[in-house]
Amino acid sequence: MRRILAALSLLALLAGPAIAADLASARAAGQVGERPDGLLALVDPNAPADVKALVGTINAQREAEYRSIAARNGTSVDAVRAVVFQRVLSQLPPGTFYMDASGRWVRK
Q1: pTM, entire model
Q2: How do beta strands 32-34 and 97-99 pair?
Q3: I want to staple 33 with a disulfide (CB 3.0 to 4.6 A). Which of 28, 75, 78, 97 is the partner?
Protein backbone atom coordinates (compact mmCIF):
# COMPACT_ATOMS: atom_id res chain seq x y z
CA MET A 1 0.00 0.00 0.00
CA ARG A 2 2.86 2.37 0.80
CA ARG A 3 4.31 1.88 -2.68
CA ILE A 4 0.93 2.64 -4.21
CA LEU A 5 0.71 5.89 -2.26
CA ALA A 6 4.22 6.85 -3.33
CA ALA A 7 3.38 6.17 -6.95
CA LEU A 8 0.32 8.38 -6.73
CA SER A 9 2.49 11.44 -6.63
CA LEU A 10 3.13 10.72 -10.30
CA LEU A 11 -0.49 11.49 -11.07
CA ALA A 12 0.04 15.10 -10.18
CA LEU A 13 2.92 15.26 -12.62
CA LEU A 14 0.92 13.80 -15.50
CA ALA A 15 -1.16 16.87 -16.04
CA GLY A 16 0.64 20.04 -16.96
CA PRO A 17 -0.13 23.31 -15.21
CA ALA A 18 -2.74 24.30 -17.81
CA ILE A 19 -4.69 21.06 -17.38
CA ALA A 20 -4.44 21.29 -13.59
CA ALA A 21 -5.74 24.86 -13.70
CA ASP A 22 -8.57 23.88 -16.03
CA LEU A 23 -9.54 21.01 -13.72
CA ALA A 24 -9.51 23.30 -10.69
CA SER A 25 -11.76 25.76 -12.54
CA ALA A 26 -14.17 23.03 -13.67
CA ARG A 27 -14.35 21.65 -10.13
CA ALA A 28 -14.92 25.12 -8.66
CA ALA A 29 -17.70 25.74 -11.18
CA GLY A 30 -19.40 22.49 -10.14
CA GLN A 31 -19.04 21.01 -13.61
CA VAL A 32 -16.94 17.94 -12.71
CA GLY A 33 -16.46 15.73 -9.69
CA GLU A 34 -14.56 12.72 -8.49
CA ARG A 35 -16.05 9.24 -8.76
CA PRO A 36 -15.29 6.41 -6.30
CA ASP A 37 -13.42 4.58 -9.06
CA GLY A 38 -10.74 7.28 -9.16
CA LEU A 39 -11.98 8.87 -12.37
CA LEU A 40 -13.67 12.17 -13.10
CA ALA A 41 -17.25 12.59 -14.26
CA LEU A 42 -19.48 15.42 -15.35
CA VAL A 43 -21.66 16.71 -12.55
CA ASP A 44 -23.31 19.05 -15.04
CA PRO A 45 -24.35 17.11 -18.15
CA ASN A 46 -24.64 20.45 -19.97
CA ALA A 47 -20.99 21.32 -19.37
CA PRO A 48 -19.20 22.86 -22.35
CA ALA A 49 -17.42 20.66 -24.86
CA ASP A 50 -13.99 21.73 -23.61
CA VAL A 51 -14.86 20.51 -20.10
CA LYS A 52 -16.06 17.19 -21.52
CA ALA A 53 -12.79 16.87 -23.46
CA LEU A 54 -10.81 17.73 -20.32
CA VAL A 55 -12.54 14.93 -18.39
CA GLY A 56 -11.75 12.48 -21.18
CA THR A 57 -8.09 13.52 -21.34
CA ILE A 58 -7.54 13.34 -17.59
CA ASN A 59 -9.37 10.02 -17.28
CA ALA A 60 -7.23 8.49 -20.02
CA GLN A 61 -4.08 9.66 -18.23
CA ARG A 62 -5.33 8.38 -14.89
CA GLU A 63 -6.36 5.02 -16.31
CA ALA A 64 -2.94 4.47 -17.86
CA GLU A 65 -1.21 5.43 -14.62
CA TYR A 66 -3.50 3.22 -12.50
CA ARG A 67 -2.65 0.23 -14.70
CA SER A 68 1.05 1.01 -14.44
CA ILE A 69 0.95 1.39 -10.65
CA ALA A 70 -1.05 -1.83 -10.29
CA ALA A 71 1.42 -3.77 -12.45
CA ARG A 72 4.46 -2.42 -10.59
CA ASN A 73 2.93 -3.28 -7.22
CA GLY A 74 1.37 -6.61 -8.07
CA THR A 75 -2.10 -5.44 -7.15
CA SER A 76 -5.38 -4.83 -8.93
CA VAL A 77 -6.36 -1.68 -10.76
CA ASP A 78 -9.45 -1.57 -8.53
CA ALA A 79 -7.24 -1.45 -5.43
CA VAL A 80 -5.28 1.45 -6.90
CA ARG A 81 -8.50 3.25 -7.82
CA ALA A 82 -9.81 2.91 -4.25
CA VAL A 83 -6.61 4.34 -2.78
CA VAL A 84 -6.61 7.21 -5.25
CA PHE A 85 -10.22 8.11 -4.52
CA GLN A 86 -9.60 8.26 -0.78
CA ARG A 87 -6.51 10.38 -1.26
CA VAL A 88 -8.15 12.76 -3.73
CA LEU A 89 -11.24 13.02 -1.54
CA SER A 90 -9.13 14.04 1.44
CA GLN A 91 -7.52 16.81 -0.63
CA LEU A 92 -10.59 18.20 -2.40
CA PRO A 93 -11.33 21.81 -1.51
CA PRO A 94 -14.63 22.55 0.23
CA GLY A 95 -17.50 23.08 -2.17
CA THR A 96 -16.30 20.60 -4.79
CA PHE A 97 -18.27 17.52 -5.77
CA TYR A 98 -17.61 13.83 -5.31
CA MET A 99 -19.82 10.83 -5.90
CA ASP A 100 -20.76 8.78 -2.86
CA ALA A 101 -21.08 5.00 -2.79
CA SER A 102 -24.74 5.19 -3.80
CA GLY A 103 -23.92 7.17 -6.94
CA ARG A 104 -25.17 10.56 -5.71
CA TRP A 105 -23.19 13.76 -6.10
CA VAL A 106 -22.20 15.27 -2.75
CA ARG A 107 -20.67 18.67 -2.18
CA LYS A 108 -17.71 18.51 0.17
Answers
A1: 0.82
A2: parallel
A3: 97
